[in-house]
Amino acid sequence: MGFASTVFFHGGSICSVRISILLSLLPVVIIGLGAKHIFDCPKQPMVPMYLLVGGVACLCLQICPIFYCRPSDGSPILPCRILNSLLLLFCSIWFITGSVFVYMAYQPNYESRHSVEYCERILYQVAFWITNAIYISIPLLLLCHCCKTCWENRSQNLCSISTLC
What we know:
Largest sheet: none
Helix content: over 70%
């Protein structure tokens, strides 16, 4: 059991590094896509803006920890923590607002560029699937966090019992 859990958690850390690298590149792609197609969705003109602003906000969230003003004890200074909290709040509100934009424009016309119902296929589908992926990943991340917490608590309880015996 110890070997299996070591392999599982080691493999999980490699996987999480790869995923975090891909996720760090995603805002740049989203910003570029939103900027390139800024006027290509007359059905819901806010869809490209949703991608553009959301990508910039996510990029700021990724860059902000690099510039944290850390004292010698390693904890972030209060203004940096406030800035990060405000960015997280903005991202949450913008995500909910963007979800309304995306889902209200569901199934636009991808063919006729001169139609009022038109939206660039790649633009809309990226916005739609990223929004769906976030809604799917939130419960999965919460479940993983709960499982990790339970696993750590179980491991600590087993260790404390074996040391008492």
